[in-house]
Amino acid sequence: MSHNTPEHFHQQAKEALADKELRQNFRGAMDYLRGKRRDAFPDPAEEKAVRDRAEAIRQRCLSKLPELLEKLEQNLQRNGIAVHWAQNADEANEIFSALAKQHQAKLMVKGKSMVSEEIGLNHFMEKHGVRCLESDMGEYIVQLDGDTPSHIIMPAIHKNKQQVSDTFEHNLSDFQPTTDVDRLIQTGRNALRKAYQEAEIGVSGVNFAVAETGTLCLVENEGNGRMCTTIPKVHVAITGIEKVVEFLSDVPPLYSALTRSATGQNITTYFNMISSPRKDGELDGPEEVHLILLDNGRTQAYHDNELRKTLQCIRCGACMNHCPVYTRIGGHAYGTVYPGPIGKIISPHLMGIDSTQNLITASSMCGACEEVCPVRIPIPSLLQRLRQESKHNAEPKHDPLNGQNAAHNTLESAAMKGFAFAATHPTFYHAGLNAARKMNGMIPEHLGSWTQCRVKPKLAKTSLKAKLAKRQGGK
Question: CB neighbours of 71 closer than 8 A, spacing ≥ 6?
Fold first, then answer.
């Protein structure tokens, strides 16, 4: 079970690297997903066109975010959908709690929603006497284990068939152990079927919220999202404020970029569009629909033109699947709801740099994440920006991030200033190098984190400059 925190990232990463079964599980899954994405974009020119258009749509919509949110609210209310605003996780949870009390709810059945994970909805509602049951199969498996998701698209990707069978055996009565995937899936479905009918409230996330029509769009493969949003009498959706798009015509290009990047599908099995509660004469659908729009640090990113690009994310997970760090340690090592490359740039806004400072340095800066991002988020350059703010106070033109300067080290700062001086004064620089060469044997074998996986540095007895000068003199 994962109860990790970002403050202990280095130890958690070390433990993950030592877990051979976890490494094997992720290696197979990541190879599969990378292959699926590659096959979904056989034509480089088409891939470029898809990404260009998706990026342009997200940037246009974000540039108009305040007005689009107001328009979304107006059209949702006109359609009969109640809109709630939450500044942070506490406010969002209180809204859920109030709705549960209003409807005397004892059971919520929930479709996949990373924002609900972000606010800790399940634990909050449990403390208030309301069971919040996950219906996404991966989420259901990790919930049975008392675990947390390790991927934003495939929550139980860290488990293999045998581990899932063990989970069911320990938690479900009359389950006969099996590693047959179809039987495992059917077991989960049978266990969940009754919950849809008994739950007073259905909960979902939102992939795209259309301001033009007041429509909530949900992308899924299992059908559980449609069950959660049609069978219970009350449907409560929650999403971050950045998920709004301007026009209905913006959705198909983003939908194509999302599904092909996430799972290599041209289209998912289900695409749900919700624009109102059940109308007179309709046979299904909830009697009430509510939408909770969550800020929780997003406005802070929005106010900075560079960091705003973080909000372009459409939660496909492609950056994780191609990241050489994530693919080896998995999502739990990060200790955050959003792991991997995208988590490294989102989490500082949600949690502050002080608690996430280890994450923003956990990158090889290879650029693989940016190369596959369907909306072209410049993750490496944003990481560089966050690294700077973790060491220094923000420039006056930037809004300060919570916890900035948390990683400041006086000794390190003095050393860098000294190096900067030497590097711009050749006499001091070469004198320092000559002195260092004479002390080669005095350099200790262990130099902190650097020598955990490297040998200690050793300077050449003669500099390249001296060798070139000697060669030229010889001629």
Answer: 211, 212
Stated as kind and residue range, the H or E segment containing 273 is strand 270-274
Are 138 and 322 a contacting pair, CB within 8 Å? no
Residue 433, pLDDT > 90, answer no
Report the distance separating Cα 395 and Cα 417, nearest Å. 18
> Torsions phi, psi of 277, nearest 5?
-70, 180
CA gap 167, 145 in Å, rounded: 6
Terminal CA-CA length for the chain: 69
pLDDT, one tens digit per residue, over 138-177 is 999 999 999 999 999 999 999 999 999 999 999 998 899 9
CA dihedral 306, 389, 325, 156 (to 10 degrees): -80
Whole-number Å distance between alpha carbons of 386 and 353: 8
> Distance from CA of residue 214 to its chain's centroid?
26
What is the SS3 assignment for 378?
coil
The dihedral formed by the CA atoms of 91, 95, 97 and 103, expressed in degrees to the nearest 10:
170
Q: Can you give the length of the chain in residues?
A: 475
How far is residue 230's CA from residue 40's CA, in Å, rounded to a whole number? 32
pLDDT at 474: 59
Instruction: Give yes or no for a contact between 71 and 78, defined as CB atoms under 8 angstroms apart.
Output: no
**Which strand ranges, in their side-by-side order, compose the sheet holding 131-134?**
82-86, 288-294, 234-240, 201-204, 107-110, 131-134
Q: Which residues of 181-198 are buried (b: 16+ CB within 10 A; e: fewer)?
A: eeebeebbeebbeebbee
Question: Which is it for strands 270-274 and 215-220: parallel, antiparallel or unpaired?
Answer: antiparallel
